[in-house]
Design a protein that fits this description.
CATH class of the largest domain: Alpha Beta
Largest sheet: 5 strands, mixed, barrel
CATH architecture of the largest domain: 3-Layer(aba) Sandwich
Low-confidence stretches: 444-459, 462-467
Number of strands: 14
Order of helices and strands: HEEEHEEHEHEHEHEHEHHHHHEEEE
Strand order of the largest sheet: 1-2-3-5-4
Number of helices: 12
Number of domains: 4
Helix content: 40-55%
Shape: elongated
Mean pLDDT: 82
Radius of gyration: 49 Å
Oligomer: single chain
Distance between the termini: 136 Å
């Protein structure tokens, strides 16, 4: 063998990698996923196996982001990949470009997974459905150039021209459609100018309608204060938005019909026209999608060296994670032992005894306070009774009265008043106002009249503090 035919290991692996990538640039492989690993870089590494063999696979972040479902251990999948070689270890592997569940479309699986998750969260419950109000103004969230808006406006104009229409233009297909639909719902709720919202578009494939199956759109519909009618696709098409909305219309035209008076014959004619247009659009979209797929298959992705480095970095990260996990387990075992030792020395028993003593002292203290309070109440009652017996009001109750001058001074002797003085007599109930017509001492009268006359008049009772 000549020296020129001797390869280094690196050269041999590089040559083998080139041959594999050229010879198997686009293959489809079906098998079962095992040893699935998802490091923080976003790349996925797993083994694809069947009953007789297995092969290592790598799917880089730029491709995993395009998947509509989340694969797991044991899933049977169909891959579109190219055969390559990981030069650092000489491992034969598949670089995966696309993945879908074997025997079922990826979008259908993703649809069912999201539907189950939102159903468990309660977004489909009837208790959250709002009744549709009487409509004077309708907001429509859809594409301003699509057939759906044309159909709905036609139905509204024909059936009830008095209904006002607010259009919130938004794309209803593609990656950006989800964010635009959510923003339109939030804007309509902020404006609060319409009675009800219609969210819809014409028919299409499951992929075309996918923005109405996004979780963000579902939560925006659920949180809307305005009632929402979902009108997406054909009658046979169901989206997540249909299940969350307050009402579902099988078509956009049916949504307009639902919110306006009924004229069946003209509506059926419009539906037939719309269905033919949708089928034509669907055929055109499918043709364009097939053309785009063929172009994508002919393209060769750059950056193979970068992917190889990224794969090596991911392997190192996986090893580091395993080492960290082992260290955490050891520290966890040590913590458990320390906790057990602490339990044995816990002062719980002594604490319970002290708590019982405190409770007993509390009862004794409460009883003593109650006894002292009862004694003080009895003393207060006795003093109040004694005070009441000495009250002047009790004397008045026995037929006596208190005489006062006009300035409030009490009349104690005849010298305190003279003839003509105005006096007030306080009785047990009420008082009298009098004028003095005669004054007598203990020896003789000061007036010549032998008859004492007093002009009196009953005065209205004044409410005093004694009353």
């Amino acid at each position: 063998m000549q020296a020129t035919n001797i390869f280094t290991v690196s050269q041999l692996n590089q040559r083998a990698k080139q041959l594999l990538e050229v010879s198997f640039a686009n293959v489809r492989v079906e098998g079962e996923i095992s040893n699935l690993s998802r490091p923080s870089s976003g790349h996925w590494y797993f083994t694809l196996k069947d009953s007789g063999a297995q092969v290592r696979c790598a799917m880089f972040r730029s491709r995993t982001a395009l998947l509509k479902f989340m694969p797991k251990e044991g899933d049977k999948v169909e891959l579109r990949a190219k055969v390559s070689l990981y030069e650092n270890r000489g491992d034969y592997q598949l670089i995966v470009d696309a993945m879908k569940p074997a025997g079922e479309g990826a979008l259908l699986l993703a649809f069912q997974q999201l539907k189950d998750r939102l159903a468990m969260a309660g977004l489909f419950d009837e208790q959250y459905k709002q009744p549709l109000p009487s409509v004077r103004r309708v907001g429509i969230i859809t594409s301003p150039t699509g057939a759906a808006i044309h159909d709905m406006l036609t139905v509204f104009r024909r059936r009830c021209p008095a209904i006002e229409i607010d259009i919130y233009p938004t794309p209803v297909q593609g990656r950006d459609a989800t964010a635009h639909i959510v923003a339109a719902i939030e804007r309509a709720n902020r404006d609060n100018n319409v009675d009800v919202l219609i969210i819809g578009r014409g028919g299409g494939s499951l992929e075309d309608l996918w923005c109405f199956n996004e979780e963000a759109v579902a939560w925006a519909i659920h949180q809307s204060r305005l009632p929402i009618v979902s009108a997406v696709g054909h009658e046979v098409d169901f989206t997540i938005a249909d299940f969350v909305a307050d009402a579902r219309a099988p078509t956009p035209s049916a949504a307009a019909e639902l919110l306006s008076p009924d004229q069946g014959q003209q509506l059926r004619q419009i539906q037939l026209i719309r269905q033919r247009l949708n089928r034509a659009m669907q055929r055109q979209l499918q043709q364009q999608q097939q053309r785009l797929l063929r172009i994508q298959q002919r393209l060769r992705a750059p950056g193979r060296l970068l992917q190889s480095r990224a794969q090596h970095l991911d392997q190192l990260e996986i090893r580091l994670q395993r080492a960290q996990q082992q260290n955490l387990q050891q520290r966890h075992h040590r913590l458990q032992k320390l906790q057990q030792a602490l339990v044995h020395q816990h002062p719980q028993r002594l604490l319970r005894e002290r708590q019982q003593q405190v409770a007993l002292l509390e009862k004794q203290f409460t009883r003593l306070i109650q006894q002292r309070l009862n004694q003080r109440q009895q003393q207060l009652a006795t003093q109040a009774h004694l005070l009441n017996s000495l009250s002047p009001l009790n004397v008045l109750g026995r037929g006596y009265s208190i005489t006062q001058q006009a300035d409030g001074r009490v009349v104690q002797q005849t010298a305190d008043v003279s003839v003509g003085t105005r006096i007030h007599s306080r009785l047990h109930s009420g008082w009298l106002e009098s004028d003095v017509v005669a004054v007598h001492t203990d020896n003789a009268a000061t007036q010549t009249d032998s008859v004492k006359k007093t002009r009196t008049r009953k005065a209205p009772r004044k409410k005093t503090s004694e009353d």
